[in-house]
Write a structure and sequence with these properties.
Elements lengths: L3 H16 L6 H11 L2 H18 L5 H7 L5 H17 L1 H11 L1 H21 L3 H35 L5 H26 L4 H22 L15 H6 L2 H18 L4 H10 L5 H26 L2 H22 L6 H33 L5 H27 L7 H13 L15
C-alpha cells in the first residue's frame, strides 16, 4: 500500500512521539484513541457495539424458548442452533465477496434490514418451520454486515497506521472491546426484557438494528475513498492458492476451537467441580470484563514488543497453557471453590491469549489480501476457521465421551494450539507493521 520506507519512517515518528511524552493511564490512552479516530471508524466501532447488544439480547435465550415455549425436542433445538451458526459463520465468505463487488454501504444496509425482519419474524414464530426460517434470516444477515464492517475496519486501521498514528492493532483492539462490551450488555438487557416475554426481547433487538440502519443511512458515505470494487471473477481460486493466508486461517481456527470450549469442555468441568453449571455465568462475565478493561493495555504492551507473528504465537501458547492448568489439576479431583480455580485460570489464560491473537490475525489479513479483495479474505478467515471449529468440536465431543482419564482430553486440547504455533506463517519482509 505504501513502500517500506514510508512505513519505517511513520513507525519511527510514532515511537519518537511516544518516547517524548509521559505515559498515559489506560483510560486516558483509550479516550485519546477514540478522539483520534475518523468519523467512519467511530461509526463502524459503535456499529459493532450495537450489533452485539441487539444480538445477545435475544440469542442466549433462544434454546430455552425453543424447548419450553415452542416445545421442540432437544435434537431439533441443537439442529436449529447449528443452522444459525452455519448461515452466519459459514456464509461470511459470501458476504465478503458481495462487499468487494458492491461496496460496504449497500451490504451493511441489506444486513440490517434482514436482521430486523428476522428478529420480528422470530418473535412471532410459533411453528418449527417458521422458527427455522427466522433463524436462517438472522444468521445470513450477520454474514452480510459482519464481513463488511470487519473488512472496512481492517482497511481503515491500515490507513491509520500509515498516517503514523500508531499500530493498526490498537484500532482492531478497540473494535474487539466494543464487541465484548455489547456481548456483556446484551444478555443483561435481554434478561430484563424476558420479564415481559421472549417476543418483547426480539422486538427490542429489532429496534436496535433499526437505529443502526438509520445511522448508516445518514452517516455512511456512498463511496469510501480508497475502497476498490472488483468486478472480475476468480477471487476464490486466488484465495485457495494462497498458502500463507490458509495457514493463518488454520492458526486462527485453532484459537476459535479453543474458545468454543467455553461452551463444550468448560461446562463439564464446572459441573464436576461445583455440582451445577451456575458458576458458568460468572466465568463468562469474567472473560467479557477482562476484554473490555484489559484489551487496549495488552495490545499497547504487545505493540511495543511483538510483531504480528510473535503476538499470535504468544497468544496460542497462553491458550495452550490454560488447558494445561486444568489438565494438571484434574487428577487431584478438587471440588467446591478450590475446584473452580483451575477453570477460572483457564478462562483468564484463554482470554488473554485471545487479546493477542484476534487483533493480530485481523491486522495481518490486509497484508495478505489481493488488491480489492479484502472483504473476501476477511469473510474467508471466518468461514475457513468456522469449518475447523465444526470438525474440531465434533472430535472434542467424541473425545470427552470416551471415558479417558480426566486429564487426557484437556492435554489433547492443550496440544492443539501449541502445535498450531508451527503453522503461523512467517512475515514477508516489509509486510505490515509491528503488532
Amino acid at each position: 500500500m505504501t513502500d517500506l520506507l514510508s512505513r519505517v519512517l511513520a513507525r519511527k515518528a510514532t515511537r519518537t512521539s511516544d518516547a517524548g511524552t509521559p505515559p498515559k493511564s489506560p483510560r486516558e490512552s483509550t479516550w485519546r484513541l477514540c478522539k483520534d479516530l475518523s468519523p467512519l471508524l467511530r461509526l463502524l466501532i459503535l456499529t459493532q457495539l450495537a450489533f452485539n447488544i441487539g444480538f445477545y439480547a435475544v440469542l442466549p435465550f433462544l434454546a430455552e424458548h425453543l424447548g419450553t415455549a415452542i416445545g421442540m425436542a432437544g435434537w431439533l433445538v441443537g439442529f436449529v442452533l447449528g443452522l444459525r451458526t452455519f448461515s452466519q459463520q459459514g456464509l461470511f465468505v459470501v458476504g465478503g465477496w458481495l462487499v468487494d463487488r458492491f461496496g460496504v454501504r449497500p451490504v451493511v444496509l441489506a444486513g440490517c434490514v434482514l436482521r430486523i425482519a428476522g428478529f420480528v419474524w422470530l418473535g412471532y414464530a410459533e411453528a418449527s418451520w417458521t422458527v427455522i426460517g427466522a433463524v436462517l434470516v438472522i444468521g445470513f444477515a450477520a454474514a452480510l454486515f459482519s464481513p463488511a464492517v470487519e473488512s472496512e475496519v481492517a482497511r481503515q486501521s491500515v490507513v491509520w497506521e500509515e498516517d503514523g498514528r500508531g499500530p493498526r492493532t490498537r484500532v482492531l483492539a478497540l473494535f474487539s472491546v466494543a464487541g465484548q462490551a455489547g456481548a456483556f450488555v446484551g444478555p443483561l438487557l435481554g434478561a430484563l426484557l424476558l420479564a415481559v416475554d421472549f417476543r418483547t426481547a426480539c422486538l427490542a433487538g429489532a429496534a436496535v438494528f433499526v437505529l443502526v440502519l438509520a445511522g448508516h443511512l445518514w452517516l455512511m458515505p456512498q463511496h469510501i475513498p480508497g475502497r476498490i470494487r472488483v468486478r472480475k471473477r476468480g477471487g476464490a481460486r486466488v484465495l485457495l492458492r494462497d498458502r500463507r493466508f490458509l495457514a493463518l486461517c488454520c492458526a486462527y481456527g485453532t484459537y476459535l476451537l479453543a474458545y468454543n470450549q467455553l461452551y463444550l469442555a468448560l461446562p463439564d468441568e464446572v459441573q464436576r467441580a461445583a455440582g451445577s453449571q451456575a458458576p458458568l455465568s460468572w466465568l463468562f462475565a469474567l472473560s467479557s470484563v477482562l476484554v473490555v478493561f484489559a484489551q487496549l493495555p495488552v495490545t499497547r504492551w504487545a505493540g511495543d514488543r511483538l510483531d504480528l507473528r510473535r503476538s499470535m504465537t504468544a497468544g496460542l501458547l497462553l491458550i495452550a497453557s490454560g488447558f494445561a492448568v486444568v489438565a494438571a489439576a484434574r487428577p487431584a479431583g478438587w471440588t467446591g471453590t478450590a475446584g473452580l480455580l483451575p477453570a477460572a485460570g483457564f478462562v483468564i489464560l484463554l482470554t488473554v491469549g485471545q487479546m493477542l491473537v484476534v487483533p493480530a490475525a485481523r491486522a495481518w489479513v490486509p497484508d495478505l489480501a489481493e488488491e480489492g479483495r479484502l472483504g473476501l479474505y476477511m469473510g474467508a478467515l471466518s468461514s475457513v476457521s468456522g469449518l475447523i471449529v465444526l470438525a474440531g468440536s465434533a472430535a472434542t465431543g467424541f473425545l470427552l465421551d470416551l471415558g479417558l482419564p480426566a486429564a487426557v482430553p484437556w492435554l489433547v486440547l492443550a496440544a492443539v494450539p501449541a502445535l498450531a504455533v508451527a503453522v503461523v506463517p512467517r512475515r514477508e519482509k516489509g509486510a505490515g507493521a509491528a503488532a
